[in-house]
Specification:
mainly alpha, elongated
Amino acid sequence: TRLQILALVDAKMKPFASPVRDGQRRRLLQILSSARGHASQRRPCEADDPSTGGGLRRLRSLDEATSHTARHSERPSGKTSAADRCAGAPAWRVSLAFLEGVELSRAQPTTRMFNSSINDCKKGQQWQHAFILFSRMQQASRTPDVVTYSTLIGACEAGRKWQHVAYLFSDMLRSSLAPDAIVCNFAMNTLTKSSQWHLTLDIFGRMHSMMTEPNVHTFGAVAGACSRSQQWELALDLLSGVHAHITLDRKAVDSIVVYNSVISTCMRAERWQEAIAVLPLLLHRDLRPTVVTSSAIINACAIGYAWEGALQVFADMRVQSWQPNTIAYSAALSACGRGRQWERTLCLLSEMKKQAQLPNAITFGSAMRACASAKELAVVRTLLADMLDSVVHPDVRIYTDVATAHTREQHWAHALDVASQLRASGLALDVAAYGACLSACEAASRWSHALALLAELQQVGGAWRSNVIPYHITASSCCKAGRWAEAISLMEDMREGCLSISPTMLGHVVQSYQDVQQRDGVRTDIRSRTVLSYAP
């Protein structure tokens, strides 16, 4: 066990400038074996204070935890060596215990020692301990260098602690340290992932004044920030910078990522023509588009209702011997759906199944909307049945879209059947689904079904109570069927619920009452006079 500890000390001390003599190694061995006893004799410092996180106190808990484990092990002797406590422990814990031993020996850890321990914490995704070490480093009057800040920012990247990254970057500039491209890339990636895209662009703007040369990874981070903020003009300007550095950095994969981000930025900003124009620039640089590139361009064509261009890009993928994935198929289906090319949509869906590509909810939804826009309601119902038979389960939005497609008079029963299927699947109807079914009942003057749906909606509760649309649709259904008395009851319910009654709704009720009175010669009674109380 002594040899293991000595080997551990040697491994940790190799990167440091001053070698460790045998006497020092024996001293460190004794410290690591009795760290808990010495800890109680140390002078208290700020790092031990609970208000500052109790840094050293947390580190000493390692010795207590390992001692507790040793007491429950099946070792013949009752003693536990330091090597046993270090065996099997994560590298960052071993590194912290070693640094603790150096401090307990009243030696002064160097900056390289702290950097080594911080790097171990980074690899172990222990950004909290990395910051504790950074605080202890400053208390020990050790000046952090570029490696220190770079490692800390990299540790915060995994935890997406963008506030810490912004502080470290600012502190680095205040210390007159020039961050290199790696530090800037770490910082910008963390800020972009945390939706702090404006800080990412601010760092990118500072790189020129700091005389820091950007690389392809830098442009990738900035392109990601532009994509999140829809800064499509700035994203297009980045391509000129990529062209200037592509001769220095021949990593084609990283360059493609930048182009893909620029295309996605233009797509999100609905600048589909600019997105398509990026493809010739990419080919001019002898870069080969990927499936992600083609899928992004197809999505851009879908947004611009350019289904012909989407199918052309989709065909080019086959020419280049690429197998389109589910994302590419879904994008092509969406483009054809927006262009109301329902037959092409069905062809793509059939081809997708032949290529062993499993359709997802987006794929089926695009095909259904395309068929619904072409009034091919029978095909919509068939697609819904196919979806129920597959492993993909429809969500509430798909059910609502199908019900909305059947709002015409001759298809009201299908809309209610879709609502029944939605309940049977264990999903709850939302206000949009109820509204679609109520509209179908209104078109067919099915006032009794509309009242039943409204009563069911009342049982659900929630935010719908402030929505007057379900009441208006149900009242319209009753008025079309000449059931003005039921419409008056709905208005009374709305008055009790402090809901506003529109003049249009009141006009429908009055017109329905007058039509019934003229047809049947019914006299005005107390109930009918209630209509006048709602008049403005």
